[in-house]
Specification:
Length: 257
């Protein structure tokens, strides 16, 4: 069933992601949610499109979405949606936003899609089926030393807000190159070998659900700061298998302080 779900998720992600392009680089109204994060009509319309496409194929499946909550709670198959991950990038006309779909079976991820519509880049994976980038197999980097690594984050200020300045500085000091404009696109950069480490100190389930299958099936590791390879901890980083042991030690030492 995983292959069927993967094929359906790729098709549905493209339908939803392509709809976002109707609003990309356009003057659209921005709404601030209760947590002060922005949302647009593009986010909401796209999630509605994704939900309609899913339920037309699988009316009994559950859905969890950033904008419209939960449908069919209790189903053993749940689709987890983030119509526009990186809304701030989207609003500013930066093409590094993505449409995310994760599919869970019994609450564990089995399918992940990261689709960047403005770049027409799609990374897809199903557990046991490998990972692809625009239809071709993809793999994480083979960087073996942290001082050779490219380190990505989304927002530097998030580390200050969460009291993780020391952790950020250590990662910055230990790696070769640092860049931002991350969000899920940063994790896709790791899965395709174009970066070596992407860390998000704060992740919702709709941010994380697609990431683990993609990174894991690309030969990498998606882990939380305690070393557990899960989407349910509220944080996560992607890397390759060579760098993971050293990074695991760094994160574990940080959280034990």
């Amino acid at each position: 069933m995983t292959k069927e779900l993967l094929d359906a998720a790729i098709e549905i992600a493209r339908i939803g992601g392509e709809h976002t392009l109707n609003y990309f680089k356009k003057d659209i109204h921005i709404i601030s949610k209760d947590d002060d994060t922005p949302v647009t009509i593009a986010d909401r319309e796209t999630e509605q499109i994704l939900r309609k496409e899913i339920l037309s194929r699988y009316p009994d499946h559950g859905i969890v979405g950033e904008e419209f909550g939960t449908t069919n709670e209790g189903s053993n198959v749940t689709w987890v949606l983030d119509p526009i991950d990186g809304t701030k990038s989207f609003i500013h006309g930066v093409p590094f936003y993505t449409t995310l779909i994760g599919v869970l079976m019994d609450n564990e991820p089995v399918v992940g899609i990261i689709y960047a519509p403005a770049l027409d880049e799609l990374c897809a994976a199903g557990i046991g089926l490998g990972a692809t980038f625009n239809g071709e197999p993809c793999h994480v980097s083979e960087t073996k030393e942290l001082n050779e690594a490219t380190f990505l984050v989304t927002e530097i200020d998030r580390f200050r807000q969460m009291g993780q300045q020391e952790l950020f500085q250590e990662l910055l000091d230990r790696t070769r190159l640092h860049r931002t404009w991350g969000d899920a696109y940063g994790h896709m950069m790791v899965a395709t070998g174009r970066a070596d480490l992407m860390y998000d100190p704060e992740l919702n389930i709709w941010d994380a659900a697609a990431l683990l299958p993609v990174v894991q099936e690309a030969g990498g590791v998606f882990s939380d700061v305690s070393g557990e390879q899960t989407i349910h901890s509220g944080n996560g980083y992607s890397t390759n298998e060579f760098l993971y042991p050293e990074l695991k030690k760094i994160f574990e030492e940080y959280i034990s302080e």
